[in-house]
Amino acid sequence: MSDTEPRPDPIRYFGTRWVTHDTGYWLRRVTVSVGALAAAVAGALLMRLGVQGVFDSGAGSSVNLLLVVAVLICSTVAAIRSWNVFSRGRESLTGWMADEKSVGPMLLIGCVGALLAYFCRSLLEAPGEAEKRARYELALAAHARRRAPAPAGGKRKRR
Question: Domain spans of the chain?
Answer without folding.
Answer: 25-133
